[in-house]
Write a structure and sequence with these properties.
The longest helix has 24 residues, at 258-281. Helix 4 (113-119) links the parallel strand 3 (103-106) and strand 4. By secondary structure, this protein is of the alpha/beta class. It contains 10 helices and 13 strands. The model has no long low-confidence stretch (mean pLDDT 97).
């Protein structure tokens, strides 16, 4: 008997939402955008010269960091890009959460955080959300090894005020505070302006949701130049060529088209507000989501049962069996048509 298994880095992996194949399904389970990427992305993809794929991509990703910096009025040195914000966040955990003290995040939040922490042997404490599923800023004031939370939080969709975020950053000047803004473009106020004032703040965003590019895998962090340099050093020590050539070209096109971005995010917001009204009429309740999903519980129908019934109908939503939230469904916002189909199915199902 050999002993190699004793030395394996054993991890309990993050479980992403299903990506079911096949025809007539309505996919509201992974917070994807129901609209296609900007027209410029489609054009650039058609015109892409496959011959260039024999060459490695730019290791600095400068074309893309320049475009992101220009969009936000930053310098390129304040931007780090990665293979989706998951990659960016993993690099941030690896770079900054290294003091041996526990890092802090909410008990109900993006379930990848404890997975990275466990994998990298980073101790952590989960701070319970209050009864309304709100983050209590005071929970993050004590000594810690770093702080991370999404704003709006996931899977609740609830937004925190900028002044409360600033309080958390200001109480943690000796560690890095990461605000994961995967869903900020659906009506939230970004903490980005605070990066000029606080050298311990990183704001992380993604092209996966508001820019309809989940399949391309582009995420980015914005912060003080020194923070960005430290993450880059870790990235170069891991994999120099993270972003492929197509992602670099198409990412630039996606961020350039401000008008299309405005049009599609406004559509998602309008459909979300319509869906909230309809869900309320059917007996659902939920926190006031400012994201592209609604986290809802029904007055009497168990969430697990609704999840199964919807799935049988070809409508995929997300269900988490975790304590405190096992009677909730996370419903991504699709097109108006898709949401009408969802609501009319639920209406019929609940009236049986
Ligand atoms: N942060 C949060 C809060 C998320 O919900 C997600 C999506 N699963 C991500 C980050 C990662 O998104 P991506 O890697 O597609 O940028």
């Amino acid at each position: 008997m050999s002993n190699w298994e004793n030395y394996v880095r054993k991890v309990v992996p993050y479980v992403p939402g299903e990506q079911p194949g096949g025809g007539h399904i309505i996919k509201l389970n992974t917070n994807e955008n129901p609209y296609p990427p900007a027209p410029g992305v489609q054009r650039a993809l058609r015109e892409f010269d496959a011959g260039t794929l024999r060459l490695y991509p730019e290791p600095t990703c400068k074309s893309l960091t320049d475009a992101i910096a220009e969009y936000y009025g930053l310098r390129s040195e304040q931007v780090f890009v990665g293979v989706g914000s998951d990659d960016v966040l993993a690099m941030i955990f690896l770079t900054f959460f290294n003091s041996g003290l526990p890092i802090l995040f909410p008990d109900i939040t993006y379930s990848f955080y404890p997975v990275w922490a466990d994998m990298l042997r980073i101790p952590y404490e989960e701070k319970p959300l209050d009864g309304q599923f709100l983050i209590r800023k005071e929970d993050y004031y004590g000594e810690n090894g770093g702080v991370i939370f999404p704003n709006p939080n996931a899977p609740t969709g609830i937004l925190m005020e900028l002044s409360e975020i600033e309080d958390i950053v200001a109480h943690n000047r000796d560690v890095i505070v990461v605000v994961d803004e995967a869903y900020i473009d659906f009506g939230g106020v970004s903490a980005l302006p605070l990066i000029e004032k606080y050298d311990n703040l990183l704001v992380v965003q993604t092209f996966s949701k508001s820019r309809s590019m989940a399949g391309m895998r582009i995420g980015y962090a914005m912060g003080n130049e020194r923070l960005i340099r430290y993450i880059s050093d870790v990235k170069y020590s891991f994999n120099s060529y993270t972003m492929n050539r197509t992602a670099l070209v198409l990412g630039v096109e996606a961020i350039k088209d401000a008008a299309y971005f405005k049009e599609t995010t406004e559509k998602v917001i309008a459909v979300r507000e319509w869906t909230k009204r309809e869900l309320t009429k059917l007996g659902f309740s939920f926190g006031d989501s400012m994201s592209n999903f609604i986290f809802a519980t029904h007055a009497w129908a168990p969430a697990k049962e609704l999840f199964e019934a919807l799935k049988k109908e070809g409508i995929f939503v997300r269900y988490f069996s975790q304590k405190r939230i096992s009677n909730y469904l996370r419903i991504s916002i699709g097109t108006q048509e898709e949401m009408k189909t969802l609501i009319s199915f639920l209406r019929g199902y609940l009236q049986r």
